[in-house]
Amino acid sequence: MTSAQVDNGQGGRQATEVTDAGPAGEGYQRALGARQIQMIAIGGAIGTGLFLGAGKAIAKAGPSLVLAYAVAGLVIFFIMRALGELLMYRPVSGSFSEYAREFIGPFAGFVTGWTYWLFWVVTGITEVTAAAQYMTFWFSIPQWVSALIFTIILYGVNLISVKLFGELEFWFSMVKVTAIIGMILICAGILTLGFSDAGDTASVTHLWSDGGFFPHGIKGTLMTLQIVMFAFLAVELVGVTAGESKDPKTVLPKAINAVPWRIAVFYVGALVMILSVVPWTEFEPGIPPFVAAFSKMGLGIGAGIVNFVVLTAALSSCNSGMYSTGRMLRDLALSGQGPKFFTRLTRSGTPLVGTTFSAALMLVGVWVNYQWPGDAFTYVVSFATISGMWAWIMILISQIRYRRLADRGALPQSTFRAPGAPYSSVFALAFIAVVVVMMGIDKDTRISLYCAPLWAALLGISYAVLKARNPENKAFAKN
């Protein structure tokens, strides 16, 4: 296993020593610095959901979308603080898969590892395909060519070194942050100075004067929750970097504690500004809100700027997918719950076979999407949302169980305790349950709930077969 747990004779567990090279047997290099970890955390909190998906959400909820992002942001903070408490107890690259294995059971760890791997493979497929589509804005080249080039480049980056991955992610995140801050400043200038074509009509009263703050009622706001939560998927990626952070005990708490202001500025602040300059009634589901805002302002370069930003956001997501899939497969292999050949590392400490296997599947997915585009692929993307939220559920349940053991003295207390836990974690679980219910009500996302049991059944059968073939393997024994 990545880090073995042994019974201490009192019903608790004892974690292995964490060294500069990572937990015993892990073999990764701690090459990610504070600057890179901070930007990876920021990038995880700012996805294409804000730049693209928010248009559909605005049309459904109106100005109340601001409230939806604020409440969801609070839930994300609870999730990240729960993860932070676990990370300071034992910072490992397997992260929530390891915690699920330790505090819930080997099957939970098995399901979490493979489900999170699937989430990033599917996300990588969709994002590299989207990046190829964005390239057609400037160049008349076949989409499959761009998709192939992007996949090969990102694959190479992830094989060279984790430091290069972190550096690339830093600049991808910098583009997104700069774009949002720029939009906020432009909107603030329009509201105060009245310049541009939108200067005469811009007003904060648009937040409540065009049909009210809840123009479609509370139900309209609730129906956007799955879109809102999709925008936050990948914020937990900072946990996967724990095994390769130079100083996880210092860097990770700072990155996690910055989540509230990031969400307040980049989501709530940006939406308040945009909806004050452009009435929500002028947004359309298929048009990114930033594009609509630039158009209303009369800034012709807006479309090109937004296209560049969403291109970097898509490549950032695909880059993260390359990074996390290889490490999840290696963690499963080290625990005995995956093929042993996934444990192989390059000289620079990157998981060669796992990353290569995942990149190959991403290329196959790009080809499938190219051959058979349509609603079926949209359903797969919806399933990715369920897969991503599963990781959050495992984080919260693991933290609740860890806190119970730590409070009894069976495990050492974390140096970064989650505020309000376990009640904050229970609240976050309840909120996720509401999101799942909303996904079941919405006909566009309901299919993902049908796919989830099929995936669970496949994992259940695979787990039973592996356990039957390796009855003496401690990876299948309850802690």
TrEMBL record:
Keyword Disulfide bond on entry: no
Main location, first listed in the record: membrane
Family of this protein: Belongs to the amino acid-polyamine-organocation (APC) superfamily. Amino acid transporter (AAT) (TC 2.A.3.1) family.
Topology class, membrane: Multi-pass membrane protein
Region (Disordered): 1-22
Spans through the membrane: 39-59, 65-83, 103-123, 143-165, 177-196, 216-238, 259-278, 298-318, 350-370, 376-400, 421-441, 447-466
Places the protein is found: Cell membrane
Key words, A-Z: Amino-acid transport, Cell membrane, Membrane, Transmembrane, Transmembrane helix, Transport
The keyword Transmembrane is assigned to this record: yes
Amino acid permease/ SLC12A domain: residues covered: 37-468
InterPro entries attached to this UniProt entry: AA-permease/SLC12A_dom, Amino_acid_permease_CS
Protein's name in the database: Alanine glycine permease
